Amino acid sequence: VEKPDDDARRRLRCANAAFARDVAGRGASAQKARKAFASVALVQDALVGLYADAGADAAYRTAFVAVRQLALKVRSALATRAPDDVAQVLSWKFLHCARLWARCVCGNAAPERLGELAFPLCQTLFGALELAAAPSKAPFRLHCVRCLHDVAAATECFVPTTKPLLATLDECSRGGGGGGDGRGGVDDGGDFGGELDCGDKRDASARASLGREALEQLLDFLELHRYAPALPELALVPLVALKKLAKEPRCPQKLRARAKAAAATLESAADA
């Protein structure tokens, strides 16, 4: 006779496997992936609900196996740097699965639930960030950082994300994301939520949009630690980088203005 916990684990494993198969198909092309982004989020909501309703033991065991599988992919890619291994990590399937487990951890953040998986999940995401060093991978980086911030907020843990965010801002300011003459009036309202790789989108507008998103996430990080005694120390490096960005002539004008405003906000919070 199958025990209740065994049945729950079986159902969760089947749901996880079905989700992984589904997102693999939806990410077959960039166009399909962009269209499927919202629908994948709905499926993730359903799975988060399943894990919230499942017993603690069944939820932890199945989530642990899934996070471990992601970690093994990242470890293999870091060890070999083989194009096929790296491509498996820098993919929609990996990102959707990582977002799923970040949301599951956030929705079940108590230590007796899935809270203990926050650390291995964050380490896995940091490994993926290391593989996404190319300027064209900035959208992937921003997706990962968003997951890390969600986990940090839910578990009240310190997760250092300033390095990839400042690297993205530096690319945008120096043209690391590609050309663009930095003139004023460029549109920075582009949404990279449905993007994984900015590819040939290397004009000033794309750089400004990516920079805006990176700035917003940098301020999110600092907001998480607004009341921490170490805020002045945490703010020091980002503050220097933002002031430098605000004076960079090759940077799109709107991004310079946003960086100047963010530096003022950050300086005020650090001095409070």
Write a structural description:
The chain is an all-alpha fold and 272 residues long. The protein has helices at residues 4-26, 30-53, 56-80, 83-89, 92-107, 118-131, 138-155, 162-174, 204-224, 231-246, 253-271. The longest helix has 25 residues, at 56-80. The protein is globular, with a radius of gyration of 20 Å. It starts with a helix and ends with a helix. Mean pLDDT is 85; it is low at 176-187.
Question: TL;DR of this structure?
Answer:
With about 270 residues, the chain is an all-alpha fold. The chain contains eleven helices and no strands.
Unreliable runs, pLDDT <50, ≥5 residues? Answer: 176-187
Helix-strand string: HHHHHHHHHHH
* Spatial gap, N to C terminus: 63 Å
Q: What portion of residues is helical?
A: over 70%
Q: pLDDT average, as an integer?
A: 85
Global geometry: globular
What's the story with the biggest beta sheet? none
**How many helices?**
11
- Relative strand content: under 5%
Name its key features.
272 residues, mainly alpha, globular
How is this fold's topology laid out?
Layout: H1 4-26, H2 30-53, H3 56-80, H4 83-89, H5 92-107, H6 118-131, H7 138-155, H8 162-174, H9 204-224, H10 231-246, H11 253-271
Helix pairs in contact: 1-2, 1-3, 1-5, 2-5, 3-4, 3-5, 3-6, 5-7, 6-7, 7-9, 8-9, 9-11, 10-11
